[in-house]
Amino acid sequence: MFSTKFSTFAIACLSLAVIPRTRGAIIPVTVGGPNGTIAYNPSSVTANVGDVVVFTFMQKNHTITQSSLATPCSPLANGFDSGFVPVPANQTSDFPQAQLTVKDTNPVWVYCRQTGHCQQGMVFAVNPGDKLAAFQAAATGGSTSASISASAPPTSTSASSSAPSAPPTSSTDHVVVVGGTAGNVFNPTNITAQPGDTVTFQFHSKNHTATQSSFGNPCRALGLTSTTGQVGFDSGFMAVDANATTFPTFTIQINDTQPIWTYCRQTGHCGSGMVFSVNAVDPNSFAAFQAKAIQLNGTASASAASPSNTNGATLPVRSAAGTIAFVGLVLGLVL
Ligand SMILES: *[C@@H]1O[C@H](CO)[C@@H](O)[C@H](O)[C@H]1NC(C)=O
Ligand SMILES: *[C@@H]1O[C@H](CO)[C@@H](O)[C@H](O)[C@H]1NC(C)=O
Ligand SMILES: *[C@@H]1O[C@H](CO)[C@@H](O)[C@H](O)[C@H]1NC(C)=O
Ligand SMILES: *[C@@H]1O[C@H](CO)[C@@H](O)[C@H](O)[C@H]1NC(C)=O
Ligand SMILES: *[C@@H]1O[C@H](CO)[C@@H](O)[C@H](O)[C@H]1NC(C)=O
Ligand SMILES: *[C@@H]1O[C@H](CO)[C@@H](O)[C@H](O)[C@H]1NC(C)=O
Ligand SMILES: *[C@@H]1O[C@H](CO)[C@@H](O)[C@H](O)[C@H]1NC(C)=O
Ligand SMILES: *[C@@H]1O[C@H](CO)[C@@H](O)[C@H](O)[C@H]1NC(C)=O
């Protein structure tokens, strides 16, 4: 049933075709970002065979292009290349994505083909071992920059040889900014999402979480109140500097149209209304959920709070890998 969601391009050691069969981790990587960030975040990942690296193209106009350790800023013959993915500066959601499945543990070297970006250090690696610094230095040292041209990228293995005729189904990644200059809020506060979509929480400054709760108990982890054994997702605390330019992310998969209720576990935040919902419907609206959070955990309720309140700290913190299955491919980008 999942096969139509994915392209099935088979490229070098990387393939999209095996995604529906794997139980690998999802590893999110942002490409570019607000204010013209020229970087991949994170700049490298360690991945196991079967893991899926999901790239989210943010603002500007970048590529994901395979290169080599020796020549970081030149396309690898028969390597993969996303092509340019322009994203307007005013776009704040529905970012295009591409993904690649890790087929072995050899290093995979990647750069952005946009003029000057590689030389400014816009490189990325899967399983670089101890070679990441050397790769970055070779990129910014300019030793290979002269060979970059605007010519067509290397042709990768054609989709037609292995892809079924069905095009990739469109799904959406909803980016939600957590904290930052807007204060202790999720932005947007509430969204509507379809099964197959994803929600990527992008953590800005301060120290927040995105933790699943329930409508009845907005400020308590779902696992602490569920009568049906649900654990719920939890990003864990994401401490981010005020002057940070790259932001950690946490992605959840939307599996159905049931409402999803979320709050920040940081002391005082939920009680001040730092909550978020997916697919809230009247009478259990987002506004009602937020009002309940403030009513139950706001200053008015402070004196009633249990002294043994651990602020949710007993919740087992699960990695992104443990809480999401896989991410649908948004665009038919070729990796
Ligand atoms: C982007 O620029 C705006 C306005 O200059 C600033 O408020 C914001 O903090 C910047 N964001 C990042 C991620 O640097
Ligand atoms: C993206 O960058 C490429 C290469 O510089 C350029 O050809 C293309 O026009 C750009 N697209 C947009 C929409 O700016
Ligand atoms: C972004 O700006 C362009 C040009 O000003 C405008 O046409 C477009 O509607 C804007 N998009 C959004 C999402 O605001
Ligand atoms: C983030 O907040 C948590 C909970 O209050 C705290 O345990 C942790 O030390 C904080 N991290 C940083 C870096 O401030
Ligand atoms: C952020 O700013 C502080 C003080 O201005 C500085 O000490 C720190 O190194 C900066 N951090 C980053 C990541 O730039
Ligand atoms: C839900 O989010 C939309 C923007 O996405 C906002 O306009 C609306 O006010 C929010 N609803 C509530 C109750 O805050
Ligand atoms: C909200 O209040 C309840 C009841 O006192 C408490 O169990 C829970 O930990 C509080 N949540 C937060 C995030 O402080
Ligand atoms: C969606 O399903 C996957 C796989 O069962 C699960 O890991 C994930 O937590 C679910 N998403 C939500 C929001 O419950």
From TrEMBL:
<protein>
    <submittedName>
        <fullName>Cupredoxin</fullName>
    </submittedName>
</protein>
<dbReference type="InterPro" id="IPR052953">
    <property type="entry name" value="Ser-rich/MCO-related"/>
</dbReference>
<feature type="compositionally biased region" description="Low complexity">
    <location>
        <begin position="144"/>
        <end position="172"/>
    </location>
</feature>
<feature type="region of interest" description="Disordered">
    <location>
        <begin position="144"/>
        <end position="173"/>
    </location>
</feature>
<keyword id="KW-0732">Signal</keyword>
<dbReference type="InterPro" id="IPR008972">
    <property type="entry name" value="Cupredoxin"/>
</dbReference>
<feature type="signal peptide">
    <location>
        <begin position="1"/>
        <end position="24"/>
    </location>
</feature>
